[in-house]
Amino acid sequence: MRDQDCVRFLQAYLPRLDLNWAGYRKVRRTVCKRIGRRMRELGLSDLAAYGRLLERNSEELARLDAFCRIPISRFYRDRAVFDALGRTLLPDLAERAAMRGDREVRCWSAGCASGEEVYTLRLLWDLVPQPSDPNMRLTILGTDAEEVMLRRAAAACYPRGSFKDAPTDWPERAFARENDMLCLRLEFRRDIVFRHEDIRTQQPEGPFDLVLCRNLAFTYFAGDLQRRTLAAIAHRLRPGGLLVLGAHERLPAGAGTFVRAGAALPIWRKPAKKKGGPR
Prior knowledge:
The protein is of the alpha/beta class. The chain has helices at 3-13, 21-24, 28-42, 47-56, 58-67, 79-99, 116-127, 147-155, 170-174, 217-220, 223-236; strands at 104-110, 137-144, 157-158, 175-178, 181-184, 192-196, 208-212, 237-244, 259-260, 267-269.
């Protein structure tokens, strides 16, 4: 399959899946390889034949949709973001929770892939000194559309390469070696739930203090779907809560009242409700 043929194919079919070609430009070869393997399984000679199959088979269209999922994850990916979360933003969320009488900071990792992001939050809370109430809990929900990714997340075992961005002492402090993998110790898996959900059609109940939706909706989804996804997240995010995007992502046009929580970082705050005001 020639690259240019696959590009034309993706440009034609991604909009039917509410996906955005611009987001796939750099990762298209991964998707094209998956499509090529599928064509060989089906004994199809070219993309035109595969396209005809898609036109009459909704199950195959759903399979194409699955081919377009790009689960890239590692611990502490985007260091500046997690430095800010560990240093100031998680403690601030804990203080806000205490002020309203809560003993829990609720987090949602949307598109959590194999769990590195979820466990990064857990380890930030447990291993980075927190000035918050020691009785304050951090609870984390990780959701993803790929069940195989969720099984890996639940197993919590990772190759050494997953830690290239993480603090150098984390593997020794929080993981046990099992063969050639590093497996998270049980005490660092508490208050974490993984759930099979596709954010396009399902979202958990809020409210959440922190939502991470990184390198997913605001990279790969088409414009209208981005705006619907943002609205769904905003509805589940507590006033004063934080939304974290990927390093190269932006909020879609018409994002409403979100304001940046850090100068050049992709972290946005939902403004707190104003007290009083005009009636």
